[in-house]
Each structure stands twice: as structure tokens, then as C-alpha cells.
Amino acid sequence: MINVTALIQLKAFARQDGFLLFLLWIASFAVIVTNPMSSWGSLLAMATPFYVGYLLARFRNYALDGAISFRRGLAFSLYTFFYASLLFAVAQYVYFRFLDNGALMTMLIASVKTLEPFYKAQGISVNELQNSLSMIGQLSPIEVAFVFMMQNILIGAVLSFPIAWIGKRTIIRKNLHHGEQFNNNMNNNDINHDDAGNDRNNL
Prior knowledge:
Structural class: mainly alpha
Oligomer: single chain
Number of helices: 9
Mean pLDDT: 81
Largest sheet: none
Order of helices and strands: HHHHHHHHH
Radius of gyration: 26 Å
Distance between the termini: 57 Å
Helix content: over 70%
Number of strands: 0
């Protein structure tokens, strides 16, 4: 049975954290566009799973008292990637529609030519890469943004499984439950000892 309140809470946090992930992607995209030779753009992009893991841990500790199931963690990660992908698609559409003028495609084609020896060493067809980039270059801005959005959602879906598995915590809740039982038992023992002492005094 679906807990509607829990789902509303999860989606609310996922929207907020999706916006934060969107900011990370925008920073990465801006670095790649303005300074293609810098490695910071790629590093920011590769930090995505670690950042989502941090957001999941923050949601777990702040809203769920340190315990979250794999299923809820997976849903949180999926929604976070989904909202970030939507926002990033809008930003990319604006960029490709009004600012790019083919600059990004030109840069990507030049990068393929520069890395041609590496691709050949890995057995990757350079011609196929160039043809794929040419096909993307023929798409409209909204189509390009849609392609990137679906790619981001797909990658996010794949990454969500290990992120949710690593971020799940159920031991804390069990420990708290056992701790409460231990305290209750101790209190009951104290009461029993007091009652026994009272009985002896009465005798």
C-alpha cells in the first residue's frame, strides 16, 4: 500500500535536491562550453553520483531520523535525477536556441579529431562518432535538449540503484527499537525490585 504522505514528502525533497543537482550540471556544462580544455567540467559531471549520494544521506538523516529503505532511497534518487534532467533540458534548449550557433557541435567534432588515435586504439570507429555528431547537429534545439534529457534520465536510472543500495540504513531503526526494549526491561526490573523490597519491609 502506498503511503501518500511519505510520497509527497519524498517528492518535495527530490524537487529541492533535483534543483541542486541541476546547478551542478549547469556549472559543468558552462565550464565545458567556455573552457573546453579544462578538466573541471568533466570532474563536476563525474561527481554526480557522489553528490546524489550526499543528498540522499541528507534526506535520510534530516527527514527520516537516519533510516531509509532501499526502495525509498531508489525512489528518491530516481525523482532527483528526473527533476534535474527536466530543468537541465530547459536550460540546454535556451542555450542551443539563442546562444550556441553551432559552437558546441564544432567543439565536439574537433575533440573527436584530437582524440582520434585514442579512439582507434580502443577499437572505436571515429567515422561512426563523427556521423553521430553530424546527425545531432542537424536536430533542432528542442530535439537536442530532448535527446540529452533522455540520456540523463537513463544514466540517472542506472546510477540510482547503487546509490540507493549504499545509502540505505535499517540498522539504526532496529538498534533504537532494541534500545527502547532494553530501557523498558531495565525499568520493569527496577519496579520489580522496588516491589520486592516493599514486600520484605511489610513482612
